[in-house]
Amino acid sequence: MRRKTGIAMSMNPDEERQLARQARLVAVVFALTMIFWMAAQWLGGQLGWEARYVFLFDMIALAGFLWGLFVTWQIWRKRRND
Known about the structure:
Layout: H1 13-47, H2 51-81
């Protein structure tokens, strides 16, 4: 395993730009997922949907959040390794 020294190692500008783009995408997905989930909860309450349909929207929102968490972890690892 290579040991890092105190010297700052930086990525090239293209890699930084790509990671920043991924981070912005994650932020948008988090925001839209939350808005979608809150709207589905409200609409389900207003229309009297069965719990299984509301639960379906919960699972869709959970998938969006898990995807965002996974991509955020990948970004963190790339920045940590470089």
